[in-house]
Amino acid sequence: MASRQQAQSQQGKTYQFKLVLLGESAVGKSRYEIMDAAILVMRFVKDHFDEYRESTIGAAFLAQTVTLDDDTTVKFEIWDTAGQERYKSLAPMYYRNANCAVVVYDITQASSLDKAKSWVNELQRQADPNIVIALAGNKVDLEAKRAVETKTAQEYADECGLLFVETSAKTAYNVNELFDAIAKRMPLEQLADSSRRRGGLNTQGVSLDQNEAASGCACK
């Protein structure tokens, strides 16, 4: 598993990518019950869990790095869009130029997978054609209440060419692994080569070491 770090080695290379977090809210007494995807990203960025955390209003910005090896670091600029329906129209502002996306659903709510599929369809229609999309089934700590089988979600992800990970924001299970997998999917060397050929900046993928950018990322 790749480790996380806040500072880049002076000899290493750092690549910066925009990541958008998408998910829908359900009904419940706590933030965790209503599956606010912000709880998942807070576990990744701050290693903190708060099931009563307030919902995101509009979108929230966070950043975190993943270290792939001794000289390669991926920095994610994470935009957490609100799961509340009234803010859904704002989502295209954030995913339009995103390099990667995490679409979160609740394994205890079958309807949330249908909503996740809707987000995936929207991303595939309107986002960058090379965007890397990960499907995250959250709340595996509530296995006794599971309503979405792992096989069902895995088959859908395979069909659509998505990364797929089941996670628990509460216990931190597979949270770091999710973002590590996304970082490993980003074609870093191809991005750097593309940047050198073009000789200019492109905000879709930035090599911070060379102050150069690259074009998009590819789903495989």
TrEMBL record:
Domain of life: Eukaryota
Primary gene name: PARPA_05968.1 scaffold 20345
First-listed, main subcellular location of the protein, grouped into a coarse class: membrane
GO cellular component: endosome; plasma membrane
SMART domains named in the record: RAB, RAN, RAS, RHO
Protein name in the entry: GTP-binding protein ypt5
Record key words, sorted: Cell membrane, GTP-binding, Lipoprotein, Membrane, Nucleotide-binding, Prenylation, Protein transport, Transport
PROSITE patterns: RAB, RAS, RHO
Alphabetized Pfam families for the sequence: Ras (PF00071)
UniProt topology in membrane: Lipid-anchor
GO molecular function, one term: GTP binding
GO biological process, one term: vesicle-mediated transport
Subcellular location: Cell membrane
